[in-house]
Amino acid sequence: MSIVKVFMDGKTFEMEVDKDTTILEKAMDEDIDIPFSCQSGICTSCIGKLVEGDVEMEVNDGLSDDEIKDGYVLCCQSFPRSEKIIIEID
Ligand code: FES
């Protein structure tokens, strides 16, 4: 179980996410409005910047190599892989 903090719209949301659940899935369960569309790693609607921690993405086709290097992640594809995770969503 990971503690995931999401900074979005000037607010901080905190949730506990297990390793088999994506950050977007859990956010939807908790009524946290992370933008999304395709839910399959293509459209990048759910893009966020990983400020702290580690996630594993199943598909990240929508991201360029530079975006990946800069720490951008797709919440619909991101499974938590560290105890504490912080993601910023613009
Ligand atoms: S919702 Fe389309 S990439 Fe995540």
Which fold does the CATH topology refer to? Ubiquitin-like (UB roll)
Q: What integer value in Å does the Rg equal?
A: 11 Å
Strand percentage: 35-45%
- The total tally of domains equals 1
Word description of this protein:
The structure is a single chain. The chain has 2 helices and 7 strands. The model has no long low-confidence stretch (mean pLDDT 97). The chain has helices at 23-29, 65-69, and strands spanning 2-8, 11-17, 47-52, 55-57, 72-74, 78-80, 84-89. It has a single domain (2-89), classed as Roll (Ubiquitin-like (UB roll)). 13% of the residues lie in helices and 39% in strands. Strand 1 (2-8) and strand 2 form a beta hairpin. It is mainly β and 90 residues long. The strands form 2 sheets. Strands 2-1-7-3-5 form a 5-stranded mixed sheet. A two-stranded antiparallel sheet has the order 4-6. Bound molecules: FE2/S2 (inorganic) cluster. The site of FE2/S2 (inorganic) cluster has 13 residues, from loops.
